[in-house]
């Protein structure tokens, strides 16, 4: 009998890509004539493109630019696809959980070629049961929909799952779905912010969680 569902965010959790997103978004905004501070972009990473642009440019903006900004980010970030770095221990963490009969499901705002590049970086496809991508949901995190879809894909109830992420949006999505959450500090978000958003446990990064798995909600 499976232990439950181990649901994972990818960017900033399994792959060291948050700051690549920050730079790509900064340049995309600059090309459209907007000066957006990088710390503000960093705090918005993890949202879907539409929600991220909403948060950073506000509701009163010229929405005719949105598509061009999103496309520019996609092109700019795509230049990194052949060298996206996974965090140390990320693949081993997924394989270890699968070996303990956890069903590993990815829940990410990435899709298409970007998601394929991220999966190549993590290099643990044999441990991944399924993926809930941005193509599969109407609303991204902090909506609970990606987590709820991951639960459906794994065929388990919320009480049988643990969600691992690195942003406040991840923690809020897990809380709204009624799922326990583990926060990793590898995405650059402060511990206090993650705990305030509902994290049940906090670890430094994937390698730290792997080393201390028996002290975590996966025990």
Explain what this protein looks like in three dimensions:
This is HAD family hydrolase. InterPro entries: HAD-like_hydrolase_sf (IPR050155), HAD-like_sf (IPR036412), HAD-SF_hydro_IA (IPR006439), HAD_sf (IPR023214), PGP-like_dom2 (IPR023198). It holds the Pfam family Hydrolase. With 219 residues, this protein is α/β, with parallel strands linked by helices. The chain has two domains: 4-16 and 85-215, Rossmann fold (3-Layer(aba) Sandwich), CATH 3.40.50; 18-79, DNA polymerase, domain 1, CATH 1.10.150. The protein contains ten helices and six strands, in the order βαααααβαβαβαβαβα. It has helices spanning 18-31, 38-44, 49-57, 66-78, 90-99, 112-122, 145-154, 168-177, 191-196, 206-211; strands at 4-8, 102-107, 128-132, 161-165, 180-184, 201-203. The chain has a six-stranded parallel β-sheet with strand order 3-2-1-4-5-6, with helices on both faces. Helix 6 links the parallel strand 2 (102-107) and strand 3. Helix 1 (18-31) crosses helix 2 and helix 1 crosses helix 4. The protein is globular. The model has no long low-confidence stretch (mean pLDDT 97).
């Amino acid at each position: 009998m499976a232990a439950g569902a181990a649901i994972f965010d990818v960017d900033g959790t399994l792959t060291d890509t948050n700051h690549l997103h920050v730079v790509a978004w900064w340049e995309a905004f600059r090309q459209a004539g907007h000066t957006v501070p990088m710390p503000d972009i960093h705090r918005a990473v993890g949202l879907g493109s539409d929600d991220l642009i909403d948060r950073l440019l506000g509701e009163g903006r010229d929405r005719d630019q949105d598509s061009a900004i999103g496309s520019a980010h996609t092109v700019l970030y795509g230049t990194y696809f052949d060298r996206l770095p996974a965090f140390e221990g990320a693949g081993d963490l997924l394989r270890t959980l699968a070996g303990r009969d956890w069903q590993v499901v990815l829940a990410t705002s990435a899709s298409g070629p970007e998601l394929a590049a991220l999966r190549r970086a993590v290099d643990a496809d044999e441990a991944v049961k399924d993926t809930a991508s941005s193509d599969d949901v109407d609303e991204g995190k902090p909506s609970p929909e990606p987590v709820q879809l991951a639960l459906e894909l794994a065929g388990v109830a919320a009480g049988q799952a643990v969600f691992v992420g690195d942003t406040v949006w991840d923690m809020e999505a897990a809380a709204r779905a009624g799922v326990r959450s583990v926060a990793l500090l590898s995405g650059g978000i402060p511990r206090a912010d993650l705990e305030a958003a509902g994290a049940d446990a906090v670890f430094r990064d994937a390698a730290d969680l792997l080393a201390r798995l028996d002290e975590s909600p996966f025990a």
